[in-house]
Amino acid sequence: MEKDSQNIEIESQNMETDSQNTKIESQNTETDSQNFKPVMLMPNVSYPAYQLYALAGKESSDPETVLKICVLETAAWLRERFREIDIPEPLKLPGPEEAKTFSLEQLSSGYSDVGYHLQIIWLSEERIWALQLEEPDLGPSPGTGRPGRAPVPGRLFETNISYRIDDGRVECGFLTVVSEPEGTDAECEVYRYSCIKNIARNKDAGLWQEGWQLRDEAHALKFPGQIARLADWIEDEYRMVPAVIVSEYDDDPGREAEDVGDLDILAHMEEYLKGAADIRNVLFDSFVTLGNEVADAFNETVDVIEPKLKQTLAKLPRHRMGFAQYFTMDSDLRKLFTAETDIRIDNGEIIIVDPFEFGGDVQRFSYNRIKKDAAGVCEKINNYTGAFPKGKDLDFGGCIFVPDASIIQLDRLLRRHDSKEEVVTDLEKGHQAQLKEHTRKESALQQRIIAKDKEIEKYIENAKGLEQKNIDLTRAFKEREEKMVAAMEQKDEYIAWLKTLEARPSSLGKVAGWILDRFPDRMTMHKKAQDNLKKTGAEKAGLKLICDALEYLATDYYLEVTGKINEEKRDENCSLKYGRPFDVSPLTGIAAETKPEYKVKYDPANTGKSKERRLDLHLKVGNDNENLLRIYFFYDKERQLIVVGHLPDHLPI
Predict the structure, then answer these.
(1) Across the chain, how many H-helices and E-strands are there?
(2) H or E element: which one contains 408?
(3) Taking the complete model, does pTM exceed 0.70, yes or no?
């Protein structure tokens, strides 16, 4: 019994230890739960990058053959991209050169997931072929060893291609959708698919936009009918790419237009380019400085025509085929172009006209700017057209991409009464595809709203700037108007003054009377001054100088003393009328304070009780006896009157 009791006690202790361990494990689990949380998903944004809508094949072409070329060119391009991994079954097709013997019955739908999600849908009844490829960002030049930006974590590219036969033509839609974490600042390049240029260059296919073929060189506009076609396309609401128009430079705009027939524009210009090899070399050297990739785009030229200068857009149409349409225009057609489109284009100028759907803005590169920096202008055009499709909501006509094509395919499966499991699987795929497409469209709309808000902010800032500029201009115009009015008033005053010269006295004896007639309320000449003027004469100072000085005291000096004008205006008037300054200063010193010659008897009210007043001011001209003038006076503040007490000689010191 005692042994059993001991065993029970040991088991009880073990159970207590197990309980404590369980409690500790529970606490550790709780701590782990607090310290470790699931990885948080970041908000993503989606926006379109490269986009293009065009028609493949001429109107006379067999649409099925053209469709086969488009599909086989695309499959060949993708096989090249998948060359290092297993090529998906739907891409194992013959090359585009076998399009005429290839049968559309060999096309099929398929799905592949080898780290890259590829889905192809072929709707034989509707003649629709759609492709979607999803891939992560691997940087701009993966596998080439060329330097470039690092891949952006979380960024995905979705390639969408659609071909559809409609009304005897093949509609082609190309759309890249970028998905990335919200707030990503890293650059996102806009790349054109290589299959596009291959289709455009295929002689049995080709790509067109409203009658204008996608080409490696600019369209040469030489005839009025071409201008009318261009105007219709520029004003077309369905135009989705910019128009780059180069006006040929004419150093003699008045000459008669030369009939160049159907000659290619480059061949036509060879006769103008003789002797310009050095200039061409300089221009080409400037392209090299832009780096190899840009230089390659500029090593052949589309001419901005000038007799002895070859301005270049270089190989820009070839480099940016599918981003914009390029045109060169004879200088003689500029006026017709302006009349047809209401868009001015100057001699030798390059303009970029955006689609009206996206504002219809016009950018301008003047001939002088091109001449000064041809490479810089080309680079700006290259960058602008290359980024133009990014973030915009383009119209793809009747093209059906994979999300919508999968819905059509699903509907067909339902009509075929497949098994319940297959129907459910297809429904789920269709639902996911539709949801993805709606999400993309919603994201694209949000991006457009953000872009519009930024545009509105820019216009508001511009409006504020214009408002301030208007205020500044108004102020400047007002100041200028005030100056002009002041100048006119000054001229009127000067003319009025000139007229008064006729009434000036002809002798010293008439000076006092002249003062009394002209300035009765401003100046008076004391009898002592009159007597001294008659006795001394005007031989030294001259009658004109005496009259000028007295008039100055009674006009400009008087107006300044009484606060009507400032010193600057006083001196300005003096210089204008007399061509010299007059110096007025107070009298100081013992002689001026004590000698009787500096005093006059003054009785302004004629009461018979005169009072002595000191002559405390004087106007002085010169220091030598031959050209000396002194006018001694005082100013009666009570009566606002200048009293001249002595002139024209110097009082004793």
Answers:
(1) 19, 22
(2) helix 402-415
(3) no
